[in-house]
Amino acid sequence: MSKITETQIEKYVIELLETQGYHYLYGPDIAPDSEEPERQSFEDVLLLDRLRNAVARINPGIPADAREDAIKQILRLNSPELIANNETLHRMLTEGVNVNYFKDGVNRGDLVWLIDFDDPEHNDFLVMNQFTVIENHVNKRPDVILFINGIPLVVIELKNPADENATIHSAFKQFQTYKQTIPTLFTYNSILVISDGLEAKAGSISSDFSRFMSWKSSDGNVEASPLIGQLETLIMGMLNKKTLLDLIRHFIVFEKMKKEDKETGQTTIQTIKKLAAYHQYYAV
Fold first, then answer.
1. What letter does residue 227 receive in the DSSP assignment?
2. pLDDT range class, residue 69, cuts 50, 70, 90
């Protein structure tokens, strides 16, 4: 019996997401050096043409220059702290982006929406593998990324269950490396998923390993059979279009916590990003 490879798990994940209505693209096919690029450089993590098209589609009553201003705002997140940028982006996703424009000689304030939360099918859902990101001369390639309207909102890191050294914990550690080396990708992240093909857990960019949780139901009515893999249950139950948008909009919170350094006695304020577990989500 041949062993399962990481590539096979990747293919399985993509196929499951395609059954959920995601469009699939192979990363190198839209890379800056491809025949049909959707990125100007490997530093770009947003697919700007898709974002512009979606913003125009969702906000038809907003002038084009105001829509462009909204896009510039999400490109200009420049706090030195990743979590601060991520919180600002989350607020823009869930509350809209504030813009001003003149109409009939009057300066008007309005909101530009990056996602249509009311109609999932009005959005562009894309799954991509082999998406290379180069930041500060460091080259990384996360396994699978889910884009909504050109924004990389979910990153999935997979490990090979046949390799005893490649555990779900090593997938978690891989994310810690990514956050250090290609932080721009994680500025725009809503959810992280780690899996070894058998186990699968989801968390946020600030979650420690113990806070990554399994998603144990694909429909919210019954717990999935243990005969069905955790990865399949998580994709069908959590990453389907409707539930994913609902989670992003209503079930992610940023909490400020005081943290005291025992050696110096200094107190700092730390931001923690929390994602609802499946039983909390379905209870609500």
1. T
2. very high
Please enumerate, as own/partner, the contacts of 90-96 that have beta carbons within 8 Å and a separation of 24 or more.
90/190, 90/248, 90/252, 90/254, 90/273, 93/151, 93/190, 93/248, 93/249, 94/248, 94/249
**Can you tell me the distance from the alpha carbon of 251 to that of 243, in angstroms, rounded to the nearest whole number?**
10
Kindly state the percentage of the chain with pLDDT values over 90: 80
Computed over every residue of the chain, the mean pLDDT equals 93
Residue 1 pLDDT: 39
The pair of structure tokens assigned to 90 is: 């989350």
Please give the torsion angle defined by the CA atoms of residues 213, 216, 218 and 222, in that order, rounded to the nearest 10 degrees. -150
Given the structure tokens 């300066």, which residue do they identify? 107
Query: The whole model's pTM is what?
Result: 0.94
* DSSP characters over 121-155: GGS-EEEEES--EEETTEEE--SEEEEETTEEEEE
CB–CB of 237/268 below 8 Å? no
CA distance 115 to 215: 24
